[in-house]
Each structure stands twice: as C-alpha cells, then as structure tokens.
Amino acid sequence: MQELSFMKQTTLALMNGQQCAAHDPHRPVWHLAPAVGLLNDPNGFIQHNGVYHLFYQWNPLACDHKHKCWGHWQSTDLVHWQHQPVALLPGADYDKHGCYSGSAVEENGNIILVYSGNVKYPDGSRTTYQCLARKNECDEYDKIGPVLPLPVGYSGHVRDPKVWRYQDNWYMVLGARDLQDQGKVLLLRSTDLYKWQMLGEIAGSQLNGMGDFGYMWECPDLFTLGDTEVLICCPQGLEAQNERYLNTYQAGYLSGKLDYQAVHFTHGEFHELDAGFEFYAPQTTQIADGRRLLIGWMGVPDQDEQYHPTIRYGWIHTMTCPRELTLCDGKLYQQPVRELQQLRGEQTVWQGVANDAPPLDITSAELILVPQGLFNVCFGDAMQLTWDGGLLSLIRNSLCSNQEEHRYWRGTVQHLQIMIDRSSVEIFINHGEAVMSSRYFPTSQPLLHMKGKAKLALQYWPLMSCLE
Ligand code: FRU
C-alpha cells in the first residue's frame, strides 16, 4: 500500500471506529491505548526540550499485526499525553511491509528516528533495512532512507535498532536471528548515524555460556545504571519451566560490563523483567533529571490476542505505566514514576485482618498493602492474587480455554503497590523488586475483596482519568 493510501484508510478507520472504541468499558482511563486498531511495542521513547515523546507500533486498520506504522504521543508530565501526527507510514521500497520498531536520538538539537524497514517477498521470506527519519518544522518526520542493509550471516529477522551515544560515537544494538536459528544481539558503531560498522555479537543463544536460549531475540536496549550495563532483550523460543518463562515469549535482562573496545559483554544470568501475564518489548530512556524510565507493551505477540474482548470495540492492547528503573545488589527494580501520584483522589487508610477488609472499587485505583501473614486478593470476578508464605500466585481464567492459568513470583512479600486501570493490573512487589503486569477483563464494575488471616495496613486511592 502507498503511504497516501495508508493515510486515507487510517482516517477512515478512525472516523468509523473511534467512538465505538471510546465506549468500551475495558478501555483504560490513564494508560496509553490505540484510538483504534492494534498497538504493540513502544518506540522512540525520548525527552527532548523538556517534552516526552513516545512513538508506538500501530496498526490503525485492524486488530492484527499486518500494517505497522509509527503512532506518536507527547507529554510534558508523563501522565497526560496528546496525539501527534502519525510519524512513519510504510510504503517506501525499503519499508513497504511495515515501519517496525526502533528508537529516537537527539542529533544537533533535532530528533532522529531509527527504525527497521520490513520487506516481505511472495515466497514468504523477508529482509530488513535499518532506516532514519528526521523531524521537520511541522513536527512531522521525513524519511531519510536506509543506512544499513541486512548484515551477512543473518536471516531476514534483524531489527529493532536502539541507538545511544557513548563518548564520541553512536552505538546501536539490533535483535537478530542468525542462519543457525540462534537469537543474538548485535553491536554496531557510527560517527554520524549514517555509516555503521558491525562490531559483532554481544549476547545471545550459544554465546557467553548461555547455552540454547531461543531462535530470535527482539527489541534489545542497552544502557548504563551506575557503573553497570544492562541489556534488555526479548528472547523467543525458550521452553516454559515450572515457575518461569510461562508467557509465549519472554522479556528480561542481562547485567554486567560492556567492553566497547574488545566488543565483549560480560554478564550474569537472564532475569525476567516481569512475572505477570502480559509484558513485552519494553523500551527505556534517560531523562534530564537522570532517571532511567521504562515503558513496556502490556501484551505478548501470539498469546491469545484474538480472544481479547476489546476487539469487539475495534481496538487491542495498552502500554504499561511509565516506570523508573534502579539497580540494587545487581537486581533491576521498577517503580511507577512519581508523576502518577497526581492522579490520586481521596485517600482511604485501613488496618486490620484481611478477612475484615472493606471491598474497594478498583475501576481505576491504586493500593498499597503491607501484609503480615497469608492473604488472597480478588480483583472483581476476573483475577486473584494469593500468597502462601513463599509463593505469590496470580490466577485468572484463560481467555482462550477458560482453564485456570497461573503466574508466579517466589519470595517474601513485604509491600505491594497495585495500579489498576479498568482492564489492567500492575503489581509492584517490595518496592519494585518484581512486577506482575496483566490484563484482566472483569464482567462488571470490579470490587477488590481481601481474604485471609494476614494483618494488613492498606492505603487506597481512586485514580483520576486522563481522558477529560
Ligand atoms: C516485537 C516486534 C518487533 C518488531 C515489531 C513489529 O513485538 O515483533 O521485533 O519490530 O514487533 O510490530
């Protein structure tokens, strides 16, 4: 499809679909969701001249993964976001089957987008080009074109450039599937963003002692926290284990030390970033005050997507809330950004035994729970959280089979911060030591009920909508 045609079809989809999507009772009131169609990865997350920009993988034409362009929001407070002109539309020879994921950098005071142009052939094969686009005076993005063809030795699955500046150079990580079906992360260097030199593989399956670790790694993101390098990556093809790797694809991180000269990343084990049902393809950025922020996609590719009830209203998926990252004893902590506190309405404070706790309206709400003892939390009729003293289990009925499905976190629960928005729950355990992010679809206005003998200290706030 040509770009102009894509734009016309997008306008039509919005004219016909936006009202219906807006009336969905499951539609979030303070999370980012597509006006119509399908949203997936966050892209190009950056703060520029004091303004936050978040681009995203968007198929405005249907609730499937066929036609990807880059939608664009901006915000001055990380809470209220405004739509911006669509930033990238597929249609050029080098991106005709999708403007896939990528990142944004500031160069000479301007925003440059770096993204993967996806091209498919009739025989089912594909290739990719890493491409640039530059912001113009109308806040639209002009394509510059490809700066890197498919590297030798890799399949057509090489994508998701994340670019950063280190000392006097630009660096890029790319997710890749090599010709032996091993997932890898590639490191490249450039002085000007236009000419890229391949440095080599810095992590992946069958590398640095990882053993078999998936056939494809998507959406890498490399950054420094303190004196540690963290590499976020999304391996595909890991086998489910008892309590981990239970989603269709994983999102996690490796931390260690990157030697830019030797092109060697010495890292520890892979840790999942989230223990919930829906979390994938997160992207981070560092903002002016030094914080490293992360936003993820609250969805997983190929995981029961066609059963989401929001499809009836013509839209699917949301982002997670923006989170602040910190490292503590080598472990990555995530906490909701403090800016979200401005959404808090009147506070309720309660103390007592879980069994006696009052039911709470959790349509859009934040809770802080400090439990002593075993407890169980019901989120309306659609999800439950249970702690048995060693294992925290999140339980819901599968959207596809209606059978119970579980996700787990093993540890000692001391503090829970729970952020709820109509059809999503984000549970921050022990101030961000772990997170469980999930969609859930209550059939009526949900109440939170607590059970168990645990002594509880509870704080509750309804959260205001950002839609008005
Ligand atoms: C991850 C992903 C990326 C790709 C994009 C396409 O969800 O598959 O690898 O660039 O989505 O929308």
TrEMBL record:
Top EC category: hydrolase
Keywords, ordered alphabetically: Carbohydrate metabolism, Cytoplasm, Glycosidase, Hydrolase
Reactions listed under catalytic activity: Hydrolysis of terminal non-reducing beta-D-fructofuranoside residues in beta-D-fructofuranosides
Main location group: cytoplasm
One cellular-component annotation, GO: cytoplasm
SMART domains named in the record: Glyco_32 (SM00640)
Subcellular location(s) of the protein: Cytoplasm
Pfam families: Glyco_hydro_32C, Glyco_hydro_32N
A biological-process GO annotation: sucrose metabolic process
EC nos: 3.2.1.26
Pathway: Glycan biosynthesis; sucrose metabolism
Residue ranges occupied by any Glycosyl hydrolase family 32 N-terminal domain in the UniProt entry: 31-336
Residue ranges annotated for the Glycosyl hydrolase family 32 C-terminal domain, each copy included: 414-445
GO MF annotations, alphabetized: beta-fructofuranosidase activity
Protein family membership: Belongs to the glycosyl hydrolase 32 family.
Role: Enables the bacterium to metabolize sucrose as a sole carbon source.
Record-given protein name: Sucrose-6-phosphate hydrolase
